[in-house]
Design a protein that fits this description.
nine-stranded mixed sheet; 19 helices; Rossmann fold; 3 domains; about 625 residues; 21 strands; single chain; alpha/beta; six-stranded mixed sheet
């Protein structure tokens, strides 16, 4: 308050001298004190005394300027009202100018002194170019400026939009657009001013443009890292700006599919929904998305206590009004499934529970058959007996021409649900929708978490074969399309075949070795130099290429983008049940050989790669 009053007094004196240099002393003499009084009077409602000079914002400056203008107007009216002459006709404008300069100027100077807009970082080891929007770049620069010793010397900017090319921000040039990063970096390399790293400041920057930026940076040997969520930076410790690797999920160049969310709401809202395997990657995401459509109640079923507790806690925080019931149960326990379904009476069932890790199921074939085959039958039978309207089976591309016990067991589960669906359509009762898709990025047991763990310990990254390819999509996208398939399957129509299998459009397959190299680059390291890649050979049950359609399954359009249907190959229900009964009997007796023989009779395309000899390690390129 004292400082603002003193500055206002000086403004009055300066205005008098500027407007009438021959008689600069104010008339009346107490006018300068009146300037202080006016700024105090105006400053209280404007909150000037509570403004922090070091962190003055544009809004704060506008408040100070407004207070100064009003104080000048009040002083002018006071002089006229008291019967005194103005020093000159220009005095009111000069007084406004003086107030603005002396009240606003010191605040700007103090902020620049204590909090410079662009960090010089003269002792910084690394130079960096920022890539993002104006807002996120400014946030990053401000956070960097508060650091006592900024770790990066920012030398330029790359904008996400071409319309910003040639502009300056905080004294830094916008060198180009992200879409033309190849040319920008090539020019910098020719000029010898190539940065050590590119820092992505925009959280939503992803897809094809990000992929091309990474390719351009890799060509020039420039690392690319992503800034943390800038709204989460702690002002108390601004120097700890930990840059992160680009997530591999950000590079999926997939077209966004418009989902029928109204149809999903009609399917789920107000209904009792059961999700099996709710603690797993797919099951948990199903639970999240289903909860968002306000079901009457949601039952989460899993045989793992910790995983079940995690998803239940998350839903408690995100959807506290959704009635939930967490149940620990094994889908293989037929009596328990009937008991659970009889009590809960689900109207809609999502069956995501499965044993899906190929090598582990190969080592434990009877367990895989019990869960994937007999568990599916137990859930379907219990749901149908309790009056469920629809069951959705989550299947896998490994069920097509399977080479593993896991894949063949999922194919038999598909066959049972297909037969149930055909029977239901003819006789009424519970419909069955089967949805088949490939790998989900980041899911439990998938290759991406494995690579991340191997990167954390310095490598090498292990790849089974240089030619191995897999389909990938994000878990959120996969579950969204599962719900879309459920809507289409429940509604039916001329294009929807009874017993048909919905297949998600997975895009183009990705070579696993390319994925490994990309993840190494995303971590800011160089493949085969900083981190090696070691080929280990196919594991039992694995094959090089996965397929989405069997040769006798013709793709059929469903009318919804991202969603196809495999024309049905429906087996006789009596044969399927007989095979399941034999598998159950052999499982009880512990005879895996006879159980697998029964599986092979019903799934004749099952070409079991029991020892991983489909592609010998001797044929693999070995590096790292």
């Amino acid at each position: 308050m004292a400082l603002d009053g003193t500055l206002a007094m000086l403004a009055v004196l300066a205005a008098g001298w500027l407007s009438a240099p021959t008689s600069p002393w104010p008339n009346p003499p107490a006018l300068a004190i009146g300037g202080a009084a006016s700024i105090w009077l105006i400053g209280v409602p404007f909150g000037l005394s509570r403004l922090h000079w070091r962190f003055t914002s544009m809004r704060d400056l506008a408040l100070v300027g407004g207070a100064g203008i009003i104080a000048a107007v009040l002083l002018t009216l006071l002089i006229i009202g008291a019967g005194f002459d103005l020093p000159s006709p220009s005095y009111p404008l000069v007084l406004v100018f003086s107030m603005l300069v002396l009240l606003v100027g010191p605040r700007i100077a103090y902020r620049l002194l204590r909090h410079p807009g662009t960090p010089s970082a003269v002792n910084a080891v690394s130079s960096a170019i920022l890539v993002g929007t104006g807002e996120t770049i400014e946030l990053f620069l401000n956070a960097l400026a508060r650091a006592a010793e900024p770790p990066y010397r920012v030398t330029g900017l790359i904008a996400l939009s071409a319309r910003h090319i040639g502009r300056r921000m905080h004294g830094l040039d916008v060198l180009g657009a992200a879409s033309s990063a190849d040319g920008v970096l090539a020019k910098l390399a020719a000029a010898g001013t190539l940065p050590d790293l590119l820092v992505i400041t925009e959280p939503e920057f992803s897809g094809a443009t990000l992929a091309s930026l990474l390719t351009a940076a890799d060509k020039q040997g420039v690392r690319v890292l992503r800034a943390p969520n800038l709204t989460a930076l702690s002002p108390a410790d601004p120097g700890q700006i930990q840059l992160q690797p680009i997530a591999i999920e950000d590079l999926l160049n997939r077209r966004q599919v418009a989902l029928d969310r109204d149809g999903m709401a009609r399917l789920i809202a107000g209904r009792r929904v059961l999700v099996t395997g709710a603690g797993g990657s797919i099951g948990a995401e199903l639970a999240r998305q289903v909860a968002g459509f306000a079901p009457a109640s949601l039952m989460l079923l899993d045989n793992g206590e910790f995983a079940l507790w995690q998803i239940d806690l998350e839903l408690t925080e995100k959807y506290p009004t959704v009635a939930r019931l967490s149940v620990i149960a094994d889908v293989r326990d037929t009596a328990r499934m009937h008991e659970v379904c009889a009590q809960f009476k689900p109207e809609l069932v999502f069956h995501a529970a499965a044993l899906k890790h190929v090598p582990i199921v190969e080592s434990n074939p009877l367990e895989g058959l019990q869960t994937n085959v007999l568990g599916t039958k137990a859930v379907a039978d219990a749901a149908r007996a309790s009056g469920a309207a629809l069951m959705v089976l989550i299947s896998t591309d490994k069920a097509v021409n399977p080479s593993s016990v896991m894949g063949a067991s999922k194919r038999l589960a598909e066959m049972y649900c297909q037969a149930l669906d055909v029977a239901a359509r003819h006789k009424g009762g519970m419909g069955c929708v089967t949805v088949r898709f490939g790998n989900v990025l980041g899911s439990t047991g998938s290759v991406v978490p494995l690579f991340r763990r191997q990167l954390a310990v310095g490598g090498p990254l292990t790849v089974t074969h240089p030619d191995m390819q897999r389909y990938f999509m994000t878990v959120r996208e996969a579950v969204g399309l599962v719900l879309q398939a459920s809507v289409v399957g429940a509604k039916g129509g001329d294009s929807i075949k009874h017993g048909g299998i919905f297949v998600l459009d997975m895009g183009e397959p990705v070579r696993i070795v390319d994925l490994a190299r990309q993840m190494i680059r995303l971590a800011g390291l160089r493949p085969d130099i900083d981190i090696g890649i070691r080929f280990t050979g196919l594991r039992p049950g694995e094959k090089l290429f996965e397929e989405l359609f069997h040769g006798n399954e013709q793709p059929v359009a469903t009318g919804f983008p991202g969603l196809l249907m495999a024309s049905p190959r429906v087996a006789d229900m009596a044969l399927v049940q007989a095979a399941m009964a034999e598998i159950s009997a052999q499982g009880t007796q512990g005879d895996a050989h006879l159980a697998l023989a029964a599986l092979a009779r019903l799934v004749p395309e099952f070409a079991h790669n029991a020892d991983g000899s489909g592609a010998p390690l001797a044929d693999c390129e070995k590096t790292g």
